[in-house]
Every structure is written in C-alpha cells, then in structure tokens.
Amino acid sequence: MRKMTLALGLLLSSLTAAAADLSKGADNFYKSTTVTQQKVTFKNQYQMNVVGNLFIPNTLNRNAKHPAIIVGHPMGAVKEQSSNLYAQKLAEQGFVTLAIDLSFWGESEGKPGHMVSPEIYADDFSAAVDYLSTQAYVDAEKIGVLGICGSGSFVISAAKIDPRMKAIATVSMYDMGAAFRNGLKHSQTQAQREALIKSAVEQRFVEFQGGEKAYIPGTVNKLDASTPDIQREFFDFYRTTRGGYTPQGEKEELTTKPLLSSVGKFMNFYPFNDIETISPRPMLFITGDQAHSKEFSEDAYKRAGQPKTLYVVPGAGHVDLYDRTDLIPFSRLASFFKDSLK
Fold first, then answer.
1. With contact defined as beta carbons under 8 Å apart, do 97 and 90 qualify?
2. Is the peptide bond before 228 cis (omega within 30 degrees of 0)?
3. φ, ψ (nearest 5 deg) of residue 323
4. For the chain, is the Cβ count within 10 Å smaller at the N or the C terminus?
C-alpha cells in the first residue's frame, strides 16, 4: 500500500508539473488584431545578422514620424517569449515596436549558439536603433528601449554608451554580472565562484580541442521533490505550453541553457557601474514585490541618476511579469514612454 501511495504521489506530481499555470491572464503567445507584424533583419557592428519582429499599428500614418521602442527578451529566451507580447501591447498604444533576438539566440546569427557575450548583446540594441532610424515613419530622436529579465542589464549597458536611446525601462531585471558573481542575495561564496570559472575555462579547452559542448543548467527539464521554488517558477513558463518555445533547428531540452565555456564573461560584466551617466534620460524599473530578482531593480534604482522611477507590482513574482497580463503594468509602461519620447 505504501509503494502504491508513493507511486500515485509521483504520478500526480508529474501531471501537475506538465500543466501550465495560465492564471492571472498568462498570455505569452498573444496575437494582436490591431497591429501588423513583419520579420526584419539587420546587422550589428560585428556584421552579424540580428533578426526581429517589427510591430506597426494598423492605423499608423506612415507619412509621419513616430516614437519607437526596442524590446529585449529574458536571458536564455527568444523574442517569442515575453518580448513579442510586450511589443504588441505597446504597439497597440501607438508605438512602432521591435522585438529582437539577441545574437547567438533564436533566429539571430552567432556561432556557437547559446554563447554568452554581453558586449555583443548590448550592441544588438544599438543596431536596432540604427535600423529603426532608417525607417521613414520612425522619429530617430524618439527611440526607447525595454529590457526584460537579463535584457534589462543589457539595455543599461547599451544606453550608457548610446545616447540615442532616449528612455530606458526594465522589467523583472537581472543584473547578469552580479547574479553570476554573487548569486541571489549574495549567497555564492568566493570558492563557488572560482569553481565555476575553473569549470568554464576547462570546458573552453575541451571545445578548442574539438570536444562536445556543455551547457549550464538554465531551466530544468524535470521537476522532483528537491527542485527549488525558483526553478519551479521558471519551469512553469519555459517547460510548459504557457511559454515553452523551441526555435527551428534547436533541441527543446537545450532551450534557455547558455554555453558553460562562455559564462565567465558574465563574471566580468558590471552594467550598473556608471549607470548615473545615463541621466538626464529617464529610467523606469519595474519589479514584483514577490520577485526573487527584486534586489537588482532596487540596486539599479539606488545608483541611477534622476529622473528615475521604481515601480513595484503588488502580488507579482519574477516570471509573473513575463506574461501575466492581469499583473503587467502595460499602462504604466506606455505612459512612461509617451511622456519620455514626446
């Protein structure tokens, strides 16, 4: 009887894991009926093709110039995960929007895939500004950027050296450098950091000699009794029908997983250094009051110059703000960009 009960418990656990939580308006694959989507390709300064989805309101007067917003996806994700949703919702408010795949991810160029390269990621946003500035219906003086999760740190990195980005917003931001150096809430020891760096350079040499690639965990592919709550949160988005997406030519089990040999680059990534130099361009940091990543938005807000706003969403966790339309403050984002890109 005890074995039967245990087996039943494991079965129920498996079924629960497979069911996506679509509460609170979770709608990652939202399709707007009032905007037009167009796939576009342009080159970054490294002469790599960056692919994006351009969203234009159906009622847009193409004989006039309009403000535009570039949207970056969570680290390890692709534009079809969270970014397209945000881009469409903002396009419905009258903006031209562009959701991009960062280099080495999704449809954008870069070999090997899943490479960590924060400098190139930041350049992708500048390349998107280049592209939008060539469009007759875009006002090149009114371009904003929005970074979700890891892209929040990449847009900050980009904005520090690209004054064409006139307004900067982040949602559920991760400082990818601090996360890898220190862990959440500074939980990682120096010995653990050194061990990760050592394993990364050893794997780099394996690959230099023609060996198999290795990836860091990213989002787990299965849940068990020992799976931490944060991993369960990511699993519900990336490993279920709620937000799971596998780009053409990819393996589903490898989605979200960066190359181990390249993660050392995050150890040397300090996006918040000199963040105050972005001022007087406005910045908006959005986080959930239950988000495990809240510390990063709070840190950025503390360091940033004026004007700046920290907007905390009641009842929202980190991944909630990827796609839960009942929680995401789209109206707050739209008003920020409307006021900032006048």
1. yes
2. no
3. -155, -5
4. N
Sign of the four-CA dihedral 41, 251, 121, 156: positive
Q: Is 212 helix (H, G, I), strand (E, B) or coil?
A: coil
What is the tens place of the pLDDT at every residue in 168-178? 999 999 999 99
What's the CA gap between 283 and 291, in Å, rounded?
20
Residue 78 pLDDT grade (very low, low, confident, very high; cuts 50, 70, 90): very high
Three-state secondary-structure class, residue 155: helix
- SS3 at position 64: coil
pLDDT at residue 217 in the model: 87
Q: Distance between CA atoms of 27 and 318, rounded to whole angstroms?
A: 16
pLDDT of residue 15 exceeding 70: no
What is residue 74's three-state secondary structure? coil
Q: Which long-range contacts (CB under 8 A, 24 or more apart) does 244-253 make?
A: 245/77, 245/78, 245/80, 245/81, 247/78, 247/80, 247/106, 247/107, 248/107, 250/113, 253/221
Tokens of residue 329, six digits: 């403050």
Alpha helices in the chain (DSSP H): 2-18, 83-91, 118-133, 151-159, 176-182, 190-208, 229-238, 264-267, 294-303, 320-323, 330-340
Token pair recorded at residue 303 = 């360091």
Beta carbons of 168 and 144 less than 8 angstroms apart? yes
Torsional class of 290: left (φ above 0), alpha (ψ -120 to 50), beta (otherwise): alpha
Q: Return the DSSP state at 305.
A: P
One-letter amino acid of 26:
A
Mean pLDDT of 280-288: 98
Six-digit token string for 120: 């190139």
Which tokens in the block code for residue 11? 């079965």
Token readout for 10 is: 């494991």
Alpha-carbon dihedral sign for residues 193, 195, 199, 204: positive
pTM of the model: 0.94
**One-letter amino acid for residue 258 of the chain:** P
- Label residue 148 by pLDDT band (50, 70, 90): very high
Residue 26 three-state SS: strand
- Residue type, position 320, single letter: D
